[in-house]
Structures are given as structure tokens and as C-alpha cells.
Amino acid sequence: MPFDIILKIAGIGLVTSIINQILKYCGKEEIASITTLAGLIICLLMVIDLISQLITSITSLFSF
After folding, report:
1. CA distance readout (Å), 50 to 13, 27, 57, 64
2. Which residue, of 1, 9, 30, 35, is most buried by count of CB atoms within 10 Å of its CB?
3. Per-residue pLDDT averaged across 40-52, rounded?
4. d(CA 36, CA 6)
5. Which of 3, 22, 15 is nearest to 40 (CA)?
6. Model's pTM, two decimal places?
7. Both ends of the chain: CA-CA distance in Å?
8. Is the model's pLDDT at 64 over the cut of 70?
């Protein structure tokens, strides 16, 4: 499961990087920055979901 998430984050980073370079080449630097920010937010939401699952697992493990 963690390997799957790592591959998803790497894929999002790769796609975001390609889109960013294409938009910069076309002269759309503002939109390129927004796409980079969107990719970062998507990855952060995935990590936050994993942390939430971890906290739930730890809470259920130590509940008596």
C-alpha cells in the first residue's frame, strides 16, 4: 500500500512538471504556477488522508 501511494505522488509530480513546462513555454507563467500549486495540494491531501488513517489505527490499537 505505501508503495502505491508513492507511485501516485510521483505520477502527480511528473504530470504537474510536464504541464508546468508546457505552460511556461507558451508564456502562461501564472497558470503554470497555479497548476504547480494544485499538484502540491493534491499530494498534501493524499498525505493528510494517510496520516488520518494512521491516527485511527493507533487509536483503535490502544483503546481498551
Report:
1. 18, 37, 11, 24
2. 35
3. 94
4. 18
5. 15
6. 0.81
7. 27
8. no
